[in-house]
Amino acid sequence: MPTVVLMDVSLSMTRPVSLDGSEEFQRKNLAVHGLTMLFEHMAANYRLEFTSLVAFSSLWELLVPFTRDYNTLQEALSNLEDYDKTCVESALNGVSNIVQQEWGSSCPCQVVLVTDGSLGIGKGSLRHSLHTLKQRGDDKKFPLPFPFPAKLFILCVANIEELQMTDAMDNLEELLHLSGGEGQIFTMEGPLCLKSVQAMFGRLIDQAYSPFHAVLHCGNLSSDVQVFPRPEPVVVDEEVEPMPRTVSTDLEIVGFIEIGDISSPPVISRHLVLPIAVNKEVDEVGTGATDELEEEASASQMAGKSPNFCVLLHGSLKVEGMVALVQLGPDWYGMLYSQADSKKKSNLMMSLFEPGPEPLPWLGKVSHLGPISEAAENPYGEDDSKSPFPVQPQIKRSYAQNVTVWIKASGLQTDVQKILRNARKLPDKTQTFYKELNRLRKAALAFGFWELLKGVADLLERECTLLPDSAHPDAAFQLSHAAQQLKLASTGDSQYAAFDHNIAPMHTDFSS
After folding, report:
1. Residue 379: CB partners within 8 Å, gap ≥ 6?
2. Phi then psi for 435, rounded to 5 degrees?
3. 129 near 142, Cβ under 8 Å?
4. Structure pTM?
5. What tens digit of pLDDT does each residue of 384-401 get?
6. Residues 6+ apart with CB under 8 A from 69
7. Around Cβ 90, how many Cβ atoms within 10 Å?
8. Which residues 6+ apart lie within 8 Å of 49 measured at CB?
9. What SS3 class is residue 426?
10. CA triplet 68, 72, 77: central angle to 5 degrees?
């Protein structure tokens, strides 16, 4: 997950901050100190992530393009110049252009805005930008929300009391809301000093840049790993009371499967997995992710004389063309696989599936999968000429059947009229009547169209009252029975509104 650091270099950042027993500091100096702390942390723990540095005042300038070289970022920080007034909107437009040119519109990105909370003056100020949101044309839209998934973190070199004396805090909160609400506003607690700015950036690191350590298990083998970026909690919308699900720190490999059988499954997110070699001389070393790291990893493993299972796993998956199914938590699975960035570089990646026991329909339930050795015969055949996937469902689905879709009112009216025409020809059209009735019932239940069921039930009751004296007595019984069943289904009660249930004709006997 790349990061763009937006550094405010307007004149308000040069305001002095008096520190006891030392020389006079500017707010810019405090911001640079905090960003230095952030870059040092990322260099030690997030060295595979790309970071860019942008300075802004009334205009914006790309000081450092996306890079993994944190020394370059540190040098750019030490050479910052002072410019004119603050214009946040211009800077956000710059971020949008930079990220889209480098990563496109699908890659998630983190934006760290470092400022003193000053909104600028006059036209171009944040206050003016937010007040004119509804008066803009399509050619001058506000840059938020970004056209790519993003989290916005705003770090103010000011305390909360100072921001609340004006409307600065309200405007920053609205800015965060426009970005989609993903992110947070951080302010300094206590006096403006080096200790306070370290504490503020420490809170940012804890929330957005804390490494995710886990243990990868496979039978009796295990390996300490680190996952980039940190997996986010996932909320399942279908649950009655959705609770965020988090990836467990114990990742259990439950089996292996060929890449051709897994195909291109839908995933929530993808993450880079780095093994960690721990010994007396080296605390943490990533291995097996890229060629640069592999040399370092090999040296560290020779020093520690401890083989790393994760390196073995990565090489095996790459050579055999398979993926490993991994359990992330209760009823939640993902997969580990080798992904090549180029001919020389390959990464061990982890993709997260949607939570649930059956994330990939063509595989069936993951808990039902088992080793080939337990099968009566090799499901792949003697020469790997066949595959047991996709798993055939118990109920054979015919894709030739017409699906009931009501795009226009005329389509719904036609289906209702068809039911009524068959209702007037009862009992001769009993089977056709119930076939059309059940088709409409299933479609209404699928769409949650409870009012339709109640309305058709009323129509059938009305038809029952309009039957002529010469009508067969079975017609009245069938119409009343069908209307009653539709009314029960319209209540939404699971006992009567089961999707797979069909309304059967009422059993009558008029032979005597």
Report:
1. 372, 386, 387, 388
2. -65, -50
3. yes
4. 0.67
5. 778 888 887 776 666 655
6. none
7. 17
8. 1, 2, 3, 42, 68, 228, 229
9. coil
10. 120
